Amino acid sequence: MAKTVFIIHTNRLAGEDLMRLFADMAPAVTVRNIIDDSMLPEVLANGGVTQGVLQRYCTYAAQAEMAGADLIFNQCSSVGEAADIARGMVTVPLVKIDERMAEVACNTGSRIAVVATASSTMGPTVRLIKSAAVRLGKEVTITEVLCADAFQRVIAGDKKGHNEIVLAAIHKLFDSVDVIVCAQGSMLALQPELGETPVPVLMSPPIGIRHAVDVLATLE
Fold first, then answer.
1. Mean pLDDT of 52-68
2. For residues 141 and 109, is the Cβ–Cβ distance under 8 A?
3. Which of 82, 61, 180, 172 lies closest to 124 in space, CA to CA?
4. CA distance 18 to 206
5. pTM (2 decimals)?
6. According to the model, what pLDDT value does residue 138 have?
7. Beta strands of the chain (E only): which ranges?
8. Which residues, including other chains, have CB under 8 Å from residue 52's CB and lie 6 or more apart?
9. What's the confidence (pLDDT) of residue 73?
10. How far, in Å, CA of 163 to CA of 169, rounded?
């Protein structure tokens, strides 16, 4: 029987990429979308998830379950910790876009760089990696690189400027780390320009959706 996935989004930036990846990896899956583009600005303005964002997120997760979701997919790392709480309030699996990426990073090397464009994403991503390292029994050191100018560029529609800033930051890290984590799903836009790299550069959309598809397979 065909499965249904509901994606909870905080913006429209990654929507087309996620729909395409689900279509490629699990063409029989029906994908529905819940979009609240007020959540990310509220998180950014307050330096983290607010009570209001948490309440709205948990409501969306409950609504997705009531609407027939077999799995809920969290698109935005900035609200990942709200997703952790919502996970305990629904009976269907809730998969975060970046949780398997964190495990892959910890299993790849001990020197991990996290590149983010939104300040609201850096803290949750670093904490997620540290949590994964503890769970996996790994010792890691994390280098944080925030490209705030790139976030402003992509919000303004300047994808070229965004890519140039983030690519330059990534290239500077190659000699000093074992693996680079791209904290924003929107960084998938870098892939065509990135080419071959001396260390792995991890992007959450393909890894996260493969995780979701694997979880869906266990529900058969």
1. 98
2. no
3. 82
4. 8
5. 0.92
6. 97
7. 4-9, 30-35, 71-74, 94-96, 111-116, 141-146, 179-182, 201-203
8. 42
9. 97
10. 10
**Percent over 90 (pLDDT), the chain:** 78
Taken in order 84, 59, 32, 71, the sign of the CA dihedral is positive
CA distances from 152 to 34, 49, 94, 98, 105 (A): 24, 20, 30, 22, 27
Query: Hey, what amino acid is at 169?
Result: A
Q: What is the DSSP letter of 78?
A: G
Q: Which amino acid is present at 125?
A: T
Tell me the range of 78-82, 89-93, 123-127 where mean pLDDT is highest: 89-93
Place of tokens 């990534």: 170
Q: Which two tokens stand for residue 109?
A: 């090397």
- Which pLDDT score, from 0 to 100, does residue 17 have? 86
The answer to whether 3 touches 214, Cβ cutoff 8 Å, is: no
The residue type at 208: G
DSSP-derived pairing of the beta strands 141-146 and 111-116: parallel
Would you give the end-to-end CA distance of the chain in angstroms?
8
Helix (H, G, I), strand (E, B) or coil at 88: coil
The structure tokens listed for 182 are 């791209």
Closest CA to 181 of 122, 119, 136: 122
Please state, in angstroms and rounded to a whole number, the distance separating the CA atoms of residues 25 and 22. Answer: 5
137, 153 in Cβ contact below 8 A?
A: no
Coil, helix or strand for 213?
Answer: helix
pLDDT at 121 (0 to 100): 87
